[in-house]
Structures are given as C-alpha cells and as structure tokens.
Automatic annotation (TrEMBL):
It comes from the Bacteria. It comes from Bradyrhizobium canariense. This is Reverse transcriptase (RNA-dependent DNA polymerase). Pfam families: RVT_1. InterPro entries: Reverse_transcriptase_msDNA, RT_dom. Keywords: Magnesium, Metal-binding, Nucleotidyltransferase, RNA-directed DNA polymerase, Transferase. Residues 69-230 form the Reverse transcriptase domain. The lineage of its organism: Bacteria, Pseudomonadati, Pseudomonadota, Alphaproteobacteria, Hyphomicrobiales. One of its GO terms (molecular function) is RNA binding.
C-alpha cells in the first residue's frame, strides 16, 4: 500500500481543496491499484473490468441530436457501467482545488455563477473553443495523467483509453468537462494570467470564456485567439460588447437590474407551447414535452417563476400508465 492509499476518501468527509498531488488518482503505480481506487463499496472493479472499459465497442450509445436548423451533432454516451466509472473519475478530480476563474465541474458553481461574475456595465469579450471535446485527444489526456498526476505510463494509457471514444473525449461522458479542463489547463491559466495583467475579470465554463473590464477590446480578443491557436485548438463565437450592449453570458442575459432569461430561450419556450397545442396525440406530446420542460427548468435557474410553470405543465400532461397515454414525465 502506498502512502496515498492510507486514507480512502470514501471513508471520510471529502475535501474539495486538495492539491493535485493528493488526488486519489495521483501517482498510481499499477492497473490493479487503479482498479481499487476506481472501485466504490457498491461497485468493485478488477483489472479485467478496466480492460473491457478501455474498448470502444459495446461501451457507448451513439446517436445524433439536432439543433433548430436541423444540423446534427454526434453524441457518444457511455453505457451505465462505464458512465459510473467516468462519474467516479469526475468525483475524485472535483475534490482538487481549482482557480477562481473555473465555474464548470465545480461544486457550488454553475453557468449562473459564471455569468454573475461579470459586471453587466463593463465591456465584455466572449469566446469559445471550436469542437472542444472532439479536439481533446487521447494524447493530451495521457500527458495529463502521466505528467501532472505522475501515474505510471501504462496506467496513464489505460485511463486515457477508458476516458475516450475513437481517441477523443466523448460528448456524453460525466467526466468530459473536468478532463477537458485539466487537459488544457495550461492554456486556460495563460489566458487567466493575461486577463489579470490587464485588470480584467475572466471566467471559464467548459470552453466558454468571458472577460470583462474597461480594457476588454478587440485587441485583447485577438491576443486570446492567438493563445488558443498556440495550444493547437481553434476558436469561434468570438465577440466584443461595449458596456452599453446587452450581454448573454453562458445562457444568462446580464443586465444592470439583474440576470434575465435570454430572449432566445423565451422564444424556444413559446414555440414549444405552440407546438404542444397542435399535438394530435400523447406520443407527439411526449416528444414536445421533454425538450420544453428542459428549457423551462433551465429558465427556472434564472427566473424562479418558470419552476411553477414547469410544475403545472408536468401535472397537466402526466398520464396514468394503464390509460394508454404518456407515463409520468421524468
């Protein structure tokens, strides 16, 4: 047993301010040690389990989702047992202290806190990384586990295989947001340091970065795009906003009067109700209800009034299982 295994984090109240060197995934010296550390009281793992999880075939559900314009985005969703392992990896990494700028995959933070960090009266820059998860390759994930986490190379390779589909991060994994962050932490840190040197507030939610302050301008945006390019990634959705312009930051409309539900989300909810009114049967209702309720719940995070509306809609369109209509909407 190594010194890192003297205290199992499952047996005591977990800390969320650990240095990376004290993470339960740090300095793993063998696949059997990895299996023990990824095990939970209700889900014991062995090396053969990890080997099976490292294969793409049979471990993922593959399907597309479509945006309003009909453009498909491929989804790779880990099946239940593999998703459980990914969730365990996320949980262990989430106990590590992270910089103030990070708002994703951090307990107590969200896209709401990400937006609230910015003064709506200040000039603001917004920029995303293009196709971020598909751009996080097996190689950079391996380098994170073999480098900063100091795992033995075969262990780092096994973790990289378990966490990737077709040699990149899957879009439906519970671990993908936090693995993506650590894989490109040097880039995010560089942007944060650059922002600090200019007196700007910088936040990051997955790949969605915002910078605000008096010196947030096109020249700064150009420099940030250069940093992203130097790290082998592409940027898009790059915009600058004056202090007078309304700004939607991570899905929240920042105004001087407080956060507001963006007009775009209002419109999607309205269109959902219009479509629901035209539904011909319970099957059509069900297809419309699920995304509508999801959007209403997202809006409720900003405006609590939507929570009551969503509850009313659930009650109205729930159906007893033996009546032949919809089952209760989960």
């Amino acid at each position: 047993m190594t010194s890192c295994e003297l205290v199992d984090p499952m047996r005591k109240k977990p800390r969320t301010d650990l240095p990376l060197s004290d993470c339960w995934l740090s300095a793993i010296d063998s696949p059997s040690t990895l299996a023990r550390r990824l095990s939970t009281p209700g889900h014991k793992l062995c090396v053969d389990d990890l080997s099976s999880f490292a294969r793409d075939t049979g471990n993922y559900r593959l399907f597309p989702i479509f945006n309003e314009k009909g453009k498909a985005r491929p989804i790779q969703w880990p099946k239940r047992r593999l998703q459980g392992v990914h969730a365990r990896i996320h949980k262990l990494l989430s106990r590590v202290a992270v910089p103030k700028y990070l708002h994703s995959a951090v307990r107590g933070k969200s896209y709401i806190s990400n937006a609230a960090a910015h003064d709506p009266k200040m000039p603001t820059i917004k920029i995303d990384v293009k196709k971020f998860f598909p751009s996080v390759s097996r190689v950079v994930i391996f380098n994170f586990f073999a480098g900063p986490l100091k795992c033995r190379r075969d262990v780092a390779g096994l973790l990289a295989d378990i966490l990737t589909f077709d040699a990149h991060l899957p879009t439906g994994s519970a671990a993908s947001p936090i693995i993506a962050y650590y894989s490109f932490k040097p880039m995010f840190d560089e942007i944060a340091q650059f922002a600090e040197s200019l007196g700007l507030t910088m936040t990051c939610y997955v790949d969605d970065m915002a910078l605000s302050g008096p010196r947030a301008n096109k020249g700064v945006l150009y420099a940030i795009r250069g940093i992203i390019a130097r790290h082998g990634l592409k940027s898009h959705k790059a915009h600058t906003f004056s202090g007078l312009q309304p700004k939607v930051v991570t899905g929240v409309c920042n105004t001087a009067a407080g956060p507001r539900v963006p007009n775009k989300l209002h419109l999607k909810i309205k269109n959902g109700f219009d479509a629901l009114a035209k539904a011909q049967n319970a099957v059509e209702e069900g297809k419309i209800l699920r995304p509508l309720l999801g959007r209403m719940e997202a809006a409720a995070q900003i405006d609590p009034a939507f929570k009551a509306r969503a509850k009313t809609v659930r009650a109205k369109y729930s159906r007893p299982k033996d009546v032949g209509g919809l089952e209760k909407i989960e």
